[in-house]
């Protein structure tokens, strides 16, 4: 089969690789029908060291089940399934807590031997991981359903962990697909005011359609001052940080209200950051977030997509065949595309 | 009157200073009957640079109202009152949220012109700040009531912000008076397992009486391993960090369970710390806490002391007159006393 392999920063190739095979009775193999490129794929696209063996890419997928291991009971050959970016058994102590990304038998497709920007995918812990899409679902819904493998539910995770709800003022930092998803999720959760910090008008326009009540293009101290002004000098109850770079985090503690919450879902490209009296502690700010526990939300949000309540697939503004995926990376890196759908 | 003044690390003096006078109609002046030395007073005791003008010390007090400004309505001359370590108006947006330490008219007695280790104290925003102790309250309850100005309610804040409740496993880092208070508060809030990390047997013995189910004397990697073993390898739902130094924070993220919460009340003696994928983010851990919003809890917890449900004053193991307060600092610094009560 063909799969996407990255060999170094900027070096993305589609190559022939062996088909995945079942290795455990809990595995399934799917034929990938929809995949995509994630903002987080751009991190290795910028800084992956030379990797002679290559790194398989992609962690978002919808596909059709081709084969299941002997222990798999909830999936049948021919089912269309959504596969979250992390696999999980659904039964361990952490899965029962809803922290499926910390499953004791779990893992991330990113960097795994089988990843999703490919014609086929090996799904470990298939019963716990994959969620079946009802037979006969309209093909037009597939882009929105694909966002339930990562991007929309990552925005939802940010909002959920941050305690977004009615009456709350929410600031979303970042106008990428995750930030826009966080806007949409915040609106769904009833936020009263949603301030989107971003500087790309085509993106912030979609953010307004998703529910943003204000857009702040300025960054740094100037951006912080604008958010404080919008909030009557009080700051934002909840800040959703959907970038992952330190300046975004610094903006977050600059705009958070005393007693408020910063919820991060942009994978931090730093380890150390300010958390002392001058940043978080002094104003009793809470820092939360992490890899989205997509699987824990998926079944509850699926009906909202199926019945048209939300249309998170609008974040896809380009579609390419697998053969052209390197162009998809380039378009997203150059900000000529917001998010690229791939059809293997 | 006499007041405690620190001029440099280790240089604590009791000196004659002018009596405080009302400066605003919302002020009150109290005669301090009970004060104490706080673990956080030891930070300047270790590192205060030479300060020719001196720094007034103390932020915990019970006293008798001597004089009130014309706008004060809830206090009368002769009332015995508890004064939290921060003053607050009780009416601003942040006070209404319960974040009284961020009051827009608030401040901290620490380093203020009038502080509590003195014969008299100027209390700004007296109506919002001071809480009246019912007339006729037994003198024997005063030490426990004094802990409601800071130490017990700081432990309570840690536990409350951390989400301690029935069924939860809680690890308390630090066997100082705040850590022991956090143990007692966690027991009150119904924690199932309370692991106290501390190495001073006399203190951890009191911790067991306050409700600790386990004591771990080891620190660092060894201490983390012991806590993980006690929790069946899963980690602690809540970690209460009552020290303020970076190694305690590192222990905290080492023992927190995926999806769990670290609640800090030890004033951080650092600004930057690990918060990335390897520490907090990867396991969806939440970091919360800050200066205790003592005033927001005081009225709810007061009856528990008055009716004998809790006896947090047991953290006081020495009592000294104001004249000997320098000895009180020395005893606490040398760990010969847990917490020293001062009678001006």
UniProtKB/TrEMBL annotation, chains A, B:
Top-level taxon in the UniProt lineage: Bacteria
Ranges that cross the membrane: none
Cofactor(s) this protein cannot do without: Zn(2+)
Positions of the Enoyl reductase (ER) domain: 10-342
Keyword tags: Metal-binding, Oxidoreductase, Zinc
Pfam families the record matches: ADH_N, ADH_zinc_N
Segment forming the signal sequence: none
Gene3D superfamilies named in the record: Medium-chain alcohol dehydrogenases, catalytic domain, NAD(P)-binding Rossmann-like Domain
UniProt key word Zinc: yes
Heme is among the record's keywords: no
Family membership noted in the UniProt record: Belongs to the zinc-containing alcohol dehydrogenase family.
Annotated protein name in UniProt: Alcohol dehydrogenase catalytic domain-containing protein
